[in-house]
Hints:
heterodimer, A: about 475 residues, 3-stranded antiparallel beta sheet, globular, B: about 650 residues, mainly alpha, two-stranded antiparallel ribbon, two-stranded antiparallel sheet, 29 helices, 12 strands
Amino acid sequence: MTNSLLTRRRLLTQALGGSTAAMLAGTLGSRPLLAHHSASDVRKVLVHVMLLGGADFRHLIAPAPGSAYANAFWQARRGLYQNPAYGSYAQCFNAEYTEVSLGGGGFGIHKNADWLRRQYNSGNVAIISNVFGSLNRAHDHSQLITMAGDLDADRLGTNRDGWGGRLAEAISDEANVVSLSGGVPIFCKGSDPAARLDQVVHASNTRDFSLPKGHGHDQSESKVLARALKSYYLGRGPSALAEHQRNWPFAIFFQHAAQIQAFGDQLDARLESHVADRPAAIQALYQGALTDRYWGGQCANLYDCMFATDILGMRVAHMEMGGWDTHANQQGSVDTKFSDIFGDDGGMKTVVNQLDQNLKGAERKLTFVFNSDFGRQLRANGGNGTDHGRANYSIVWGKQVNGGAYGELFPNSEISNNGNGQSPLETEGSDIEGRTSIERVFGALCDWVKPGTGDAVFPNRGTSALEFGTTMDFI
Amino acid sequence: MRSPLKQLTSLAATAIFLVMTTASPAISNQTEPESSNATASNGFKPIRKKDWGKPQVRKVLHAFAFGGFASDAQIRKWSEMPPRKAIKQMLNFKIVNRELSKPEAWINGQNGTLADLQDLWGSNVGANPVRRDRYHEYTFLNDERTGVRGWVLPYVWVQATNTRGVNPFLHKVALYLTNYHMAISLENAGAGLMRQYYDDFIIGLNKGKTFTQLQYIGARSAAVANAYGHQYNAIWNGEFHGNDDFAREFHQLFFRIQGETEDREYHENVTIENTARVLTGMRVDLDPNAYGIQSGWGSYVGPIRFTDHNDPAGRFLQNRRTHKKACLEVLNDGATGSERKNICGANASEKLKRLVNVASRHPEAKANIPVKIIRFFGDDNLNKRKIQQIRAEWKSMKQKDLLNFLREYAISRIFHQPNTFKYRNSFDRVLIAKNMNTLSNEESFARHVRADWRLNNQQARIFSPIANVFGGQTGQQAASNQSLFRRAYADNVNSPWYFNDVDVDRTPENGLPRDWVKNWAKTMPGPENLRRRVKNVGEWLWKRFTGDRGDNFELLARAQVFSILATGRDFGYRAYEAGYISDMNQILTADDIRSNPDLVALHNSHKKTKMVLNDRRLDVRKLWNRRVGTAVNFITATPFMFALEGK
């Protein structure tokens, strides 16, 4: 076995096998991988971006003026565009959106997401329409369903697996999900109830990852505590795990320490040798160039991790951005978010460009999928925002994506009489009709990471909903 | 509108009154809810007397009261009482619970609200125990008196939980209500309304309000109306203007009703949409002189006045006129007979009063609310059998008496059984550690350790829940979070002073009445002058801080704790210093120690060392007490501080 693909499970299994503390503290910690790391060492990585709160992608993507749909769209949603207030939809569209050129156009992408639009025109973006997971419009349950990739997820069942965790398991026991966010959500967790985190690495700050070494001289209290705790965790961990049942509540903390020890020093060494100083453009992401520094920090973590995919076993990654629950004054809120993610100075463009410059080819191994709790209602509410809906667009970016629009981007049914004399776009409370299950979209992405894993991660996808006439060959 | 002068006069009078009197007239300190049930419920089976002892008492204190401030003697007394008798003393909503958190003189006269505590702690009255150079960390008004400072509220709350005389159980329940179950954030509600929201629950709990009544307090509050924005929901010319944000969360978060037992379209198009109309006519008053503000925009103030009126800022608010007057159908799908009632009332408050009663009887609410509560306080390993008992207990209470429910759970067999465990969120872990390390109010105020910074660093943000309206960090989230674990570990390694500072000198700036020096000897059991062996001190500290019975205090933990207590050094350093190992960083296993007579002898020598924690020589006393603090740093970074076992 090499150190480079050491998973938590293997780490602990080996630790329990007998070499225990010496292996944990010595072998793993003292042989950092200094070998040159290039893009050819990077394997495919799927990045799951969760937009928490229910992102209104109908604000990101809008119909070109001149159609009956566009007229109805404007009547339903003009309340969202208050700054400035426009006299007509054409005026609004021209100011807020740029029409795409791929596939004959017909719709625009928000100007704050201009990088995304250009990527769409280059064939690197797939927009899959009418995708649904949750049908209940509740944030907590809907997030659970999306993260779990399970439409039947029990709302109280928070101790469960996620589709990222299942994907890592399906790839191999050497693959890991790396959470780049502040937490480790259900998306990352594995299917064994007693070992949910076996294939998870938490890299919320790649520059502060290893066990603390203390400060001062050898007899300083800080050094005393650093040595005492490290010796205790690594010396006691293997025997403690052997003595107790697998669901012993304290096991997880011994595992955390062992894993940080196993990966931390190696990651430090790799970053020191390959990317000691982050490029200025990457640093700017979390130092003020973006409104959302938390998002910027995750982008920087991703950039770093691409130089250490072998150490971390990274095949799946998780990122998140909050603040999408836009019941009021939606425009002011989402405009900056689009910019932070998809703009010309945004996180996506910066990471992709910097990888292209400094780890050329690695960016081609990345695919991003953007999801949210649910979509939002079709009509603006009285507070210049939108209320919770159900289906939404799924947006996928990658150099290996077959770009284009999948499914009916602006369903004709939304302007058809729904039986009560009104169309959905005229009816309070209406939302996007779900036609394609998240299982279809996510399953295809799993198959991209490693062929054949889609059915393992989503065993029911073959019978799940798929919009008529639509294929999942976007990647 | 009150004039600024009158307002200030009123505030000053209130402050003086509160300091001078022994009890606030508005708040009962003797409250025992009428619905309190002394008999066993159908759901929870009480723990047998033979299974009730000091570990169980300590476990209850850790789970429900941030550890509490009870002495070892008090803990022994409770362990010798019948559990039901003990739990009534341990857990109640009195403003001052003398057994759990024995007051020191100055606390008399406070009503336990943040506003009251802040008025005292930010003032220069003689009874204020806060050091003079820290008053500004409590004052609500900014220096220019143009607005209030929300950023001080987290520290006020943290200080409340670390103060003897304040009831930590009461404040933990208020934390649950305002930061988890009916969570809103300081940023969205505004500082004044957020504080009032919290204080309304303190008062409501103290007065023995049922859980349903507490939900009503939340639902009609100005803070929630401002945070969600439905203060702008209105009927104009017969047409609804507004959003359905809180209309949905009223059901989904406050009552855990997702509409699973209703037709989906009915739930969305009738229940949610009509609830949005219930929430019309809830504009919040703006007061230019709120909280003593003298210039600027002022601040929103509660409670909402559900009338057409001029607010203190001179705005004409039409809360009656813009309210949807007609009766509204909500949660009626599937209801039959007498349950099928529309929600009527002349204003939002009246309608909400009816609606909370309907919602509280909804099957989803009855099934989900109690599970949510128990998951927060006691168990991250619920199974079907336990959930059935929890639901049965809740169902058995005609009035949803939260206090009785929590008490019955705290002395139940399912709470104390081996397969129950609770991962501590950062609130619990950080505050238990701080409370166990703080031996008096004098220490608390003299040291002035900012636990709120540590909480913030570890993703526990009071009044700014990490998941916004879905609440603060849960135990499960904390346990899964490897980075959080590392931060907690690193905080102890990098900042040993947090637990082991042992003195604060009196200075003109801090205005302390005297120098403060730590003295663990006064708190540890046994005669004060007894020289305590390291073994006994170590074992006592382990139990005190972790709540563990000692089962997990095995050889390696002992080796480190005893070494630190005896010498101030870690065991590896000591073994290296003595020439028994060649590298002070070597990882030692229990077998390594057991198989090496030199290491065994070294460990035994540490174990037998006598500590003189109250030595007359100040420098010696400080040295020993400092080592205790360093050992506390070690203990509180072990796994046993991150979770609480059921056994």
